[in-house]
Amino acid sequence: MHGLMRLIQAYPSIESLRMKRIPLALVVSLSVAFGQSSAAQNLLDLWGSAKSYDASYQSALALYKSSKNRADEGLAGILPTMALSTNSTRNLIDYTPDVVTINPSNPSSNVIPYQRWFGTHIATFTAVQPLYRPANYQTYLQSKSVLAQSVAQLVAAEQDLIVRMSQAYFDVLVSQETLEFTRAQKRATEEQLAFAKRNFEVGTATITDTHDAQARYDLVVAQEVAAQNDLNVKKMTLDQLVGMQQTKPIPMVSEAPIERLMPTNIDEWVANSEKSHPNVLNAKLNLDIANLEVKKAVAGHLPTVDLTASMTGTRNLDGTNTSGLSSLSTHVLNKSVGVVINVPIFSGFYVENRIKETENLVDKARYDFEFAKRTAALSTQSAFLNLVSGIGQVNALKAAERSTQKSLESNELGYSVGLKLNIDVLNAQSQRYQTKRDLAQARYNVLMQELKLKQASGILQASDLNEINDMLEHQP
User: Fold this and answer.
1) DSSP string covering 32-58, please?
2) Residue of 357, 365, 347 whose CA lies nearest to 296
3) Is residue 416 situated within a structural domain?
4) What is the pLDDT of residues 285-312, one digit of tens each?
């Protein structure tokens, strides 16, 4: 949790850090977004474009920015509030007695009708500083946890985008290699078909060899059509993900060292997932928020204390409604400072029921937290075993590739001397190219399983793409 809080403190500048990490890739990606891409792109080029284009990641980023403002809103409940109000009125007194009397010898006793205008201007400034408002303080702590949750969700969205973009990138490369191997098999089968026809013409082979070769050739042609369509679909998927058209992923070098796994202890990965996975952190923060909600509910029984200060200025223009005709304007300024204590007595059992409700929600959050840890541990164990299995499969397929090559050579030699049938050569060719396709896919699967293992354990970062990017073929 302390590590996550440090991440929260540093996260306001994460956008500038991201721009510093791969500025060239991002600029290039933005400049060619939805345009024709003239050059091949490596993994980092497309990562920069995907990060600026993917709606799911941008949604998590917007939520993070919103949570920053919400955290500031929570702080407002423990800070002072100030307000200024003013009003102005104008009044008319129209005095008409029932009997009008005029006494020249005593003018002061005369009662005559008259009219008089007077006005009032009032301005009031008030300030309130909460001294003891436990519910407001718990709300402030909750807002910080909500901000931490948005950071965890943003990290999860970034990790998910890394996996999705890498998967789409490798899917295109696998489809490309599959198409290349299929075309190579098509050429080999075509040569074998021509060879069978020549042997039949000279009488050294039966028509069965020609039919077998023709059937295998037609099958490979159908596989080529399917492989081409699969490549088109995979390219469209990658284009859509990164916001570009006609992307050209750079393939991996054939002898890239992909068999690596550190640490080798599965328990270390599982332990790391239970404390670092974004979903686990998010569930832990949900539990913290639920506990704070209980404290807020308990605060409904507690008093509140506020320090208040006010200043009111009143100006009477031309007197008041009780002053005489010749009254002068007056100005009155009132100042006050005090402490307001509010003690709740009875709220219709609202507070008691609210406490019970929040306590049950704490139990729910606790079970959700435990479920998140178990899920992360299971995902990590599965990813670890898949990676170990993938590495073993690559090693086995490398041996199988050598074996199928020797098998093909032996069958071709046997067929040339009449010891093997054409169908044996065709089967050996098919097995060889199928093994090469499986090996290419297995090598990319190992890289994906490594990324998924890091994602499952919660430590996957964009910088992990650098190591994979170094395995790609060099492009000028």
Assistant:
1) TTTSB--S-B-HHHHHHHHHHH-HHHH
2) 357
3) yes
4) 999 999 999 999 999 999 999 999 999 9
Which residues, in sequence order, are CB contacts of 166 under 8 Å at separation 6+?
43, 447, 448, 451, 465, 468
Q: Which two tokens stand for residue 161?
A: 């985008």
SS3 430: helix
CATH number, domain of 24, equals 1.20.1600.10
Could you read off the pLDDT of 354-364 as tens digits, one per residue? 999 999 999 99
Residue 92 counted as domain residue? no
Q: Is residue 308 domain-resident?
A: no
Rounded distance, CA 452 to CA 455, Å?
A: 5
Q: What are the φ and ψ backbone dihedral angles of 184, each rounded to 5 degrees?
A: -65, -40
pLDDT at 326: 52
Residue 87 lies in a domain: no
For the entire predicted model, the pTM comes to 0.78
Judge contact between 44 and 250, C-beta under 8 A.
no
Given a cut of 50, the residues of the chain with pLDDT beneath it are 1-37, 476
Q: How many structural domains is the chain composed of?
A: 1
For 407, the domain range is 2-78+133-302+344-469
Q: Tally Cβ neighbours within 10 Å of residue 67.
A: 22
Which H/E stretch holds residue 476? none
SS3 letters across 303-331: CEEEEEEEEEEEEEECCCCCCCCCCCCEE
pLDDT at site 133: 93
Give me the pLDDT at residue 118, please.
76
